[in-house]
Amino acid sequence: MTLPPNVYDAEPIPETARAEIEHLLRTGDLFRYTAPENAPVTLLEQEFAAFLGSRYALAVSSCSAALFLSLKALDLPRGARVLIPAFTFAAVPSSIVHADCEPVLCECGPDYRIDLEDFAAKLPEVDAVIISHMRGHTSDMDAIMAACDAAGLPVIEDAAHSLGTTWNGRNIGTIGRIGCFSFQSYKLLNAGEGGILVTDDVDLVARAVIMSGAYEQTWQKHKARPGDNSADLEQAFARWQNRLPLYNLRLSNMAAAIIRAQIPEIPRRVRDGRRNHDRVAAHLNDSPWLEVPEKLAPEQRAPDSIQFNLAGLSEAETRAFVEAAAARGIKVQVFGLSRDNARAFWNWQFLGRDWDLPRTRAMLMTACDVRLPARLTEAECDLVAQALVDAVAEAMDRAAAA
């Protein structure tokens, strides 16, 4: 019997990280502000900003921290209403609650993207917008930005799943006022935990840096990109010194060294991840019971997983499919059926209210998620695809025989 591929192990950390890691282990120099200059975190910020084409970057302890700091840096009033897609991870509404703001949930359609009609209806009620490119699926950013610009609303991009994705040739995360990325172990760049925000707004980054934990004048160790005018940044730091609370959400030098070594790997991981996704998608779409939504035309994705909808299956048949896939060694998560799933909005009881979002609820009850990392070979991708196709056929054969 051919064993299914292991889709959970991350890629090895590149050997190029070894010398820096050994230096940090010898010296114990793990704190970003200890080095007089060019600490690994500082270099990561400069290199990541340069890669995306942004002026500034701030590395922090998680993408959730980046989202929280983004909201605080926008200086929104207490109780400000922030519009988000209802299909996202619980950390997104959590960051809004922690920032003393109120989440407003917007419907999402069967293609996992924002329902623009519901978005437009709710936009006049809010003070800011977070666009979650959930599982790397990009909503119509042209329509969203046009509406938000017309309303004078700031947009934060939650690009935790979208490093390497482009929209009309522009990097996701650089379209809104601020973009937030994740370095958690299942993301394109893996440090176990970590995050980063990017922006071209000098006051936003200065406020975020200080609140991230740049006490006294350690903000002087945050640098503009080489070749960029540093005077603007220094003046912005001076304006906000001692005027903001500190939350201590910093990234360590060890995590930064691990991440920096992987940045040159991004193009290859994006290429192979897209190849794997499209290969499996084509196979799944041959089944009458499996549907992989098409990407939008301006979008070039960087997937490391695949999402698909079950067509015409009852809840019992859906559960039978999940069991049949598991028997073949493939774990399928159905967002709306998995117990306490953090991506199902009805489980966000900390919001203190229920949301009536029938389109999103219906989608989550049939939307499936399977890991598909870039390191898989084409043969391994074929094994995953065949297992899924065979599993749904088995579930439907059982239902027909019952």
Task: Characterize the structure shown.
This protein is an alpha/beta fold and 402 residues long. The chain has two domains: 15-264, 3-Layer(aba) Sandwich (Aspartate Aminotransferase, domain 2); 266-401, Aspartate Aminotransferase, domain 1. The chain is 38% helix and 14% strand. It has 13 helices and 14 strands. A seven-stranded mixed β-sheet has the order 1-9-8-5-4-2-3, with helices on both faces. Helix 6 links the parallel strand 4 (128-132) and strand 5. The radius of gyration is 22 Å and the shape is globular. It starts with 17 loop residues before the first helix and ends with a helix. The model has no long low-confidence stretch (mean pLDDT 96).
